[in-house]
Design brief:
single chain; 7-stranded mixed beta sheet
Amino acid sequence: QLVESGGGLVQPGGSLRLSCAASGFTFSHNAMSWYRQAPGKDRELVAQISVGGGSTNYADSVKGRFTISRDDAQKTLYLQMNTLEPEDTAKYYCAIGWTAWFWGQGTQVTVAS
């Protein structure tokens, strides 16, 4: 199971930290991903992190603003989002693996003044 939290309404330029609590599988043995889907658009990859956290990759649109991290002891994935823009408005999902073979239910992020 994956349960996302931390979404909400934030003004442009603001920050949010999303969390994804994992259970039911060996979290530390899996790469993890964050995706997002805006209304009327396809789901897109935001960020990924390897087993152990030593390797990450980001969509060009969020590089330098978002940071993915993981706490294997707490079985939790994070996405720190800074300098948020209206274009970041979407539902954000965490997923297991590089290929996102299992998804959470998502958390809504709305960036608006």
